[in-house]
Write a structure and sequence with these properties.
By secondary structure, this protein is an alpha/beta fold. 38% of the residues lie in helices and 20% in strands. The longest helix has 25 residues. 44% of the residues are buried. It binds adenosine-5'-diphosphate.
Length: 400
């Protein structure tokens, strides 16, 4: 079966067409500036030259219509007819407490997705628009929803309840949900596979370090705690997000700087993290170069970032008693030997011993970073959320 994977943002859309026989990517692309002047599609069919389509796209429906056209285009396309697409797998950011696994999308699921808009006002509406547009354009093709939050629904209440009055959990469902679940799930399964071990016998800590970053504790294949919370703002310091801060800073700043809720929210999401500390960049490549050249605030930003990752790893080691596997993934985790080394430094007490020779220069490929077999296995595993979405989609469609 061929599966189309869709990831709709507010003005962008990423897609992949995957042939599940051999799990091969047949085509992939990115649509930018949907609903804004200058909309364009960058489309790559495997083995053919990239095409760029610049055409007004007033909404997601128009964008998806053009994506489907280029996928079946006789010169640039990957398949002959849309009938070859057996199912569509949609990434959905927030499933709330309604979804602990992926689902075939029907009317009841659409109702639940709409109910959960309140929990993810920025992310869920474009996901829903993408699903609705696909349903209109491919009315007979099954659609599956795969949620960023679902993998974390196994987290026990003692790790998801916030120490604020319990009534706010009951009234508004304020609790830890966690995100990047599809990525944490994929790399943990892949780690067990590469080690030739049953995931049920492993305690794994996965570090998804990218523009947004989170760490997850996975015991026997189940997420038992994760660093992101009610929203993706909690946890690690990120490119532009603050992660954990003393909540009392918020009213203090509102008072001192005369900031509104929106301004504080914007500051914490867009102007904080390593960008905020360094005053330079949110991109770790820039920060590593600047730190190397002696920029002290860039160096401080990298240290704050890596100290936070260490704290979470240590907390999860304490929760699970031991760590068998430590996985690095996403843009920074897959590419930065500097950050991986800084994170592991000083964690020898937790049986984590990175080998510089094995770590140096590893970029974007699967690798083991320790020699000592009695220590925790440290791995780089490039994430593949699209493949995970496609696998879940295939599984559900085959079960029907
Ligand atoms: P997203 O969360 O948007 O999917 P990614 O996982 O692609 O982000 O991560 C993007 C980030 O990865 C960039 O902002 C950059 O900081 C970091 N990155 C990418 N390549 C490198 C590299 N070679 N060295 C250090 N950091 C890198």
């Amino acid at each position: 079966m061929k599966i189309l994977v869709m990831n709709c943002g507010s003005s962008s859309l990423k897609y992949q067409l995957i042939d599940m026989q051999g799990e091969k990517v047949m085509a992939k692309g990115l649509v930018e500036r949907i609903g804004i002047e200058g909309s364009k599609i960058k489309h790559d069919t495997t083995g053919k030259e990239r095409v760029v389509i610049e055409e007004p796209m007033k909404d997601h429906k128009k964008a998806i219509e053009l994506v489907l056209q280029v996928i079946v285009d006789k010169d640039h396309g990957a398949i002959e007819s849309m009938d070859e697409i057996g199912a569509v797998g949609h990434r959905v950011v927030h499933g709330g407490e309604d979804f602990a696994s992926s689902v075939i999308i029907d009317e009841a699921v659409m109702d639940a997705l709409n109910r959960n808009i309140e929990l993810a006002p920025l992310h869920n509406p474009p996901n829903i628009m993408g699903i609705e547009a696909c349903k209109e354009l491919m009315p007979n093709t099954p659609m599956v929803g795969v949620f960023d939050t679902a993998f974390h629904q196994t987290i026990p209440a003692d790790n998801y309840i916030y120490p604020i009055p319990y009534e706010y959990y009951e009234k508004y469902k304020i609790r830890r949900y966690g995100f990047h679940g599809t990525s944490h799930k994929y790399v943990s399964i892949r780690a067990a596979e590469l080690m030739n071990k049953d995931i049920k016998d492993l305690n794994i800590v996965t570090c998804h370090l990218g523009n947004g970053s989170s760490v997850t504790a996975i015991e026997g294949g189940k997420s038992v705690d994760t660093s992101m919370g009610f929203t993706p703002l909690e946890g690690l310091a990120m490119g532009t997000r603050s992660g954990d801060i003393d909540p009392a800073i918020i009213p203090f700043l509102m008072d001192k700087e005369g900031m509104s809720f929106d301004e504080v929210n914007n500051m914490l999401n867009k102007k904080s993290g390593v960008l905020g500390i360094s005053g330079l960049s949110s991109d770790f490549r820039d920060l590593e170069i600047a730190a190397e050249e002696g920029n002290e605030r860039a160096e401080l930003a990298l240290k704050v970032f890596t100290n936070r990752v260490k704290k979470y790893i240590a907390a999860y080691a304490a929760q699970m008693c031991r760590i068998d596997v430590l996985v690095f993934t996403a843009g920074i985790g897959e590419n930065s030997d500097v950050i991986r080394r800084m994170v592991c430094e000083g964690l020898e007490c937790l049986n984590i011993r990175i080998d510089d020779e094995l770590n140096n220069g590893v970029r974007g490929k699967e690798a083991v970073l320790n020699k000592d077999l009695t220590s925790a296995t440290i791995m780089v595993i490039p994430t593949n959320e699209e493949l995970m979405i496609a696998r879940d989609t295939l599984g559900l469609v085959n079960e029907r």
